[in-house]
Amino acid sequence: MRILLVEDDKNLQAHVKEHLITSKYSVDVAGDGESGLFQGQEFPYDAAIIDLGLPKLDGVSVIKSLREQGFTFPILILTARGSWQDKVSGLDAGADDYLTKPFHIEELLARLNALIRRSAGQASPLIENGPFTINTSSMQVSVDEKTISLSSYEYKLFEYLMHHLGEVKSKAQLTEHIYDQDFDLDSNVIEVFIRRLRKKLDPENKYQFIETLRGQGYLLKDFSNLNLG
């Protein structure tokens, strides 16, 4: 999952980014509202964390502009302001939730996780798909109730596919959502990770859970309505 973090406090920005990366998010950062708006318009994000008190362009204006242009990814606002009017302004502009500074990083991660789940139609941190289960809170993956160890990027890729069951995702889309904006989109790393996921999660090729559609991309099968015997 790829996150946009727009925060002008360099120490807080670095602190939040570090914890997001530890939680297996890919993170792009911006230090002012103009840069944040540009990045939000130009790159595909699964969620954004936006401070309201930003230089050059305030956070409410950034959110309002993104929503007016049709960007629907969930937005969590951060504010050091104590008045309820600022929170209401941010929510009215199109934000989905807010945190008031100072905050506990664990709460930020929990709220962000919940926003991403809800945007994908998942109320619970458990995503189940036939024999496959992923816990987005503990970042554990299991097959037939057996926990499987995945690397950070293998997990990111599988989680993204689990949020988009039955949807064809191109190599470029997958790369954009698990890496930051500096990654080489022409790399064959996605093919490598797909092979690893198949080997780790379905070594006997029993489920054939990831389909390769030549010239289009990859699709994680939706087993919810299938009888797997």
UniProtKB/TrEMBL annotation:
Entries under InterPro entries matching the protein: CheY-like_superfamily (IPR011006), OmpR/PhoB-type_DNA-bd (IPR001867), Sig_transdc_resp-reg_C-effctor (IPR016032), Sig_transdc_resp-reg_receiver (IPR001789), WalR-like (IPR039420), WH-like_DNA-bd_sf (IPR036388)
4-aspartylphosphate modification, residue list: 51
GO molecular function: phosphorelay response regulator activity; transcription cis-regulatory region binding
The OmpR/PhoB-type domain, residue ranges: 124-222
Keywords of the record: DNA-binding, Phosphoprotein, Transcription, Transcription regulation, Two-component regulatory system
DNA-binding region: 124-222
CDD domains in the cross-refs: REC_OmpR_EcPhoP-like, trans_reg_C
Record Gene3D superfamilies: 3.40.50.2300, 6.10.250.690, Winged helix-like DNA-binding domain superfamily/Winged helix DNA-binding domain
Residue ranges of domain Response regulatory in the record: 2-116
PROSITE patterns: OMPR_PHOB, RESPONSE_REGULATORY
GO BP annotation list: regulation of DNA-templated transcription
One cellular component term from this protein's GO annotations in UniProt: cytosol
The name this protein goes by in its record: DNA-binding response regulator
Record organism: Cognaticolwellia beringensis
